[in-house]
């Protein structure tokens, strides 16, 4: 089976490919389909945006499509950046710009009030069915960026039960406990069922 990962984000492609690596599927990304038209992510939730992406790219490619939408919700900021995580600082913002804005908004906020969680929603479309799976990872926001692994907000997110950021834990450890890992374990079970049908 050929599976389209509906993302151009290299970090996400790497993580998802690693988590699905032993399934008998050929994984391709949007980089192999430069002429597809991206959808307007008009959903009000991560799950809605994941569905929009999966359905849009399935229609254009005809391939079984896995899309995900994920982001960071900070309690002190009433759930921001949420579904706008990738463009928190501005449209087209870099990871570093988003991190700087978040740290600026939390400047002076005490550790106990810096609680946050990552959310990930995965949608899979095969033309007949649509499945969704959700994963969550609780933690808090560090006072400063630390570590070089990962992407996005990884340098400032400390998962619950740990003392260091995702970016310092490294990909192998992150891929066991992250929001994306939790959602993809459920998505993997869906793909396994598809493969046996």
From TrEMBL:
Q: Which NCBIfam families match?
A: RdgB/HAM1 family non-canonical purine NTP pyrophosphatase
Residues given in the record as Mg(2+) binding sites: 69
Any GO CC annotation of this UniProt entry: cytosol
Q: Which InterPro entries match?
A: dITP/XTP_pyrophosphatase, ITPase-like_fam, RdgB/HAM1
For substrate, which residues are the binding ones?
7-12, 70, 151-154, 174, 179-180
Provide the species name.
Candidatus Abyssobacteria bacterium SURF_17
This chain belongs to the protein called: dITP/XTP pyrophosphatase
EC identifiers of the protein: 3.6.1.66
The superkingdom of the source organism is Bacteria
Q: Which GO terms describe its molecular function?
A: dITP diphosphatase activity; ITP diphosphatase activity; metal ion binding; nucleotide binding; ribonucleoside triphosphate phosphatase activity; XTP diphosphatase activity
| Record CDD domains | HAM1
Assembly, per entry: Homodimer.
Q: What is the lineage of its organism?
A: Bacteria, Pseudomonadati, Candidatus Hydrogenedentota, Candidatus Abyssobacteria
So what does this thing catalyse?
Answer: XTP + H2O = XMP + diphosphate + H(+); ITP + H2O = IMP + diphosphate + H(+); dITP + H2O = dIMP + diphosphate + H(+)
